[in-house]
Amino acid sequence: MPVWLREQSWRQTLTAVYLSLPLRGARATAASIFCSEQYLKVSIPPFLFEAVLYAPIDDTNSTAKIGNGNIFFTLYKKEPAMWDSLTLANADKEKLQCLRENAVLKAQEKAKEETEAKKIAKQEHKKYALEATMKVEEAERKRIEDLKEKERQKVTKELELWNNQQKDGDKYKSIQNKEELHQEIEPLKERKNEKMDKMRIPNEGTSKTRLKSTKGRGSCSIFSQSLKEEQLPAPRAAATIQVNFTPRVFPTALRESRVAEEEEWLHKQAEARRIINSDLSELQDLKEEEKNPDWLKDKGNKMFAMGNYLGAVNAYNLAVRLNNKLPLLYLNRAACHLKLRNLHKAIEDSSKALELLTPPVADNENARVKAHVRRGTAFCQLELYTEGLQDYEAALKIDPKNKNIEEDAEKIRHLIQGTMQN
Q: Which residues form the CS domain (predicted)?
């Protein structure tokens, strides 16, 4: 049975009421206090305080402070006035029940409205982030297209310049060849005319014959000069040069290598490749980095930080299939299952992580504390408070200075005591 808190002290002004409740050694939290416009309730097992206020208050701006074994309420009145008493006089059970139910319904509606507002704000934030990402990608795409266009224009100009230079070179070469040919033909014509003048005699037949023979010799010498081919050097012979390097499997210099770490790394890589080739034939389409458990763990951590818990679970699942000896994979997946309310799976992953975190040494203390806390949280959410308290106490043995774990363990003890008393 609850123990009603009868001791109280209060004072008032025109606009506010100041109420003080002694805790008597009980430990209060924000979840222990419920306040509405005209209803105030404080539930600290085994103590209970309940009051129907004299007039409505502004529950949004009203405050409660816990300290020095007391709860101090500052209740702001909706209408400035002096109250005759703190609670409503002559309130029967039916009216009290009606006020209590109305207060609970209003609190539920308010919580629902706040949840909807947060949901809408989250959607707006995602929409804004998506639009911003699209704008950034569009700007980046435009920048890349501009760079491509500039490079294309530059290459086109260089190609046109090269074509013009080739045309100018061909023209210059043809003109030079014509000039050389003209210089060779002119002296031959002059000599031919001189010979024809000397050989002019009355005998036309003889002159024609001589002219023909002279003409034949002259023409032969002209074309022999013009048809000379340029002598080009022979092409170089092809050959292959072989260069041999010192074989090194691990990409570090010999003077900086650590043989033990290299062998361990190579062993892990070989084991991962063996698993992929033998047991995971359906993963052949994955990229090389997607077959690395450490890369998948980092990807799952990023998704968890972004609130994509289901995507993080998928990343951890694939990483576990590649390497089922990493305790951090099970530990991180247990955190995702807690967020998704997969409580039994969270307990299984936390237990598996604790099995792999052996022997217990100083380096894995933080991981063992997280494993116990996450398993204890899952037990408590399943209302298995005794098992949850055992995990929290085990975490406290590892890290006795952690105040948060100590406070949570104390809350679980109070819950167990309240359950036993009920």
A: 3-87
